Amino acid sequence: MSKKFFFYIDDNIFAFKQLAERKPDSIFDIPFFGMLRDIHDKYGLKLQLNLFYELDESYDMGKFDLSEVPDTYKAEWEENSNWLKLAYHAKKEFPNVPHVNIDYDEMHETFKNIEREVFRFAGEKTFTYATCAHWLPVSKEGVQALYDCGVRVLDSTHGTACDYEEFTGELHSSYKEALMSNRKPESKVSTNEITFESEGYNLCSWNHIPSDIYDSKIKGTFNYVEDEDTGMIFKTFCSGVILNSFKLDHLESLFEKIKDDELVGMITHEQYFHDFYDYYQPDTKEKMALMAKYFTEHGYEFIFAEDII
After folding, report:
1. Could you read off the pLDDT of 222-250 as tens digits, one per residue?
2. Tens digits of per-residue pLDDT, 110-152?
3. Count of alpha carbons within 13 angstroms of residue 51, beta-carbon side
4. What is the DSSP string of 40-85?
5. 263 φ, ψ to 5°?
6. For residue 57, pLDDT beyond 80
7. How far apart (Å, rounded) are the C-alpha atoms in residues 200 and 182?
8. I want to staple 300 with a disulfide (CB 3.0 to 4.6 A). Which of 5, 8, 195, 227 is the partner?
9. Confidence check: pLDDT of 192 > 80
C-alpha cells in the first residue's frame, strides 16, 4: 500500500471575513488563500479548512458570520474543490471544549448552519463530511447528531481516560468548567500525548480511543474504530505534529519520526498566519511548504481525510 498524507487547518474564520469585506476578483487574492494555492501548485498539497460559523467577540473586530460571505466566488471554489475542501469545526472559538457535553439539537443546528452557508457560497462539492470538532471531544448526543447530518469520519482523542472524581492532577479552569457544565456520563479527563514532546491533561467524551487500541492498531495506519452505537468512524487525524506548536528548524526532526508510517495526518491553525494575532508566526507559509516538500520527497500521496475509508 502506498503511503498517504492528509492535512487540515482548524479555526478558520478570519480569511472569510476578509473575503466578505474586500470583495477581490479572486478568492486567492486574499493572502491566506493565496498561500494555500501557492503550496498546492508547487507540491500538489490537498487540504481542508475546518470552519467556525462566526467570529468570536473576544477579538473586538466586530460581528461576522458565514452568512456574510458572498456567493460571487462559488464557481471558483468548485473549480478548486479537487484540492481544497471546507468542513465543520464549531460555532465559534470560545468557550474551550464546546462539544464535550453538547446536546443533540445544538450540535445539529450548528452543523447545519455551516453546511448551509458553505453550500451557498462554495457549492456542495466543496464541503466534506470528515471533520474535526473544535478541541476534539464530542458527547454521544453530539456524535449522533453529526452522523445524522452525514458525517462518517470524526477526529478523536486518544489516551487514558478517568472520571473527574478519580482525577488527582491539575485541570485547567476552562476544562473543568466545560466538563462540569451540562455534564454527560461519558465525559471524562484524559491523560494523553498531545503532540510530540508534549503531554498533558485534556477532556474526552464519546469519540475517544483508549491508549491500548490506539497504540496497537490505529497509530500510523489506515485502521479506525467503528462505534456500534452511533455508526460513526473514530480516527485520530493528527500524527503528533501541530505545525504552529514547533519552531521551523525543529520540524524536520519530527517528520523523521513518522516518515515510514502508511498514513500521516498533520494540522495547523489559521490564526497564526495573520499579523494581527497576538501569537502571529511569520514563518507559517515556510512551515507548510517544508511539510509538503518533505512528504512529497518521501513518497507520500496527498489525500483528504474522507479518503481514509
Report:
1. 999 999 999 999 999 999 999 999 999 99
2. 999 999 999 999 999 999 999 999 999 999 999 999 999 999 9
3. 30
4. HHHH---EEEEEESB--GGG-S---BGGGS-GGGHHHHHHTTTTEE
5. -140, 125
6. yes
7. 24
8. 5
9. no
Which H or E element spans position 268? strand 263-269
Q: What percent of the chain has pLDDT over 90?
A: 91
- Collapsing DSSP states into helix, strand and coil, what is residue 33? helix
**How many domains are there within the chain?**
1
CA–CA dist 309, 302 (Å, integer): 15
Task: State the Cα–Cα distance between residues 10 and 149, nearest whole angstrom.
Answer: 20
Query: Any idea what the Cα angle at residue 108 is, between residues 102 and 109, rounded to 5°?
Result: 105
Domain extent at residue 198: 4-308
Angle between helices 284-297 and 31-43 (to 10 degrees): 20
Q: What is the CATH number of the domain that holds 277?
A: 3.20.110
For the chain, the residue count is 309
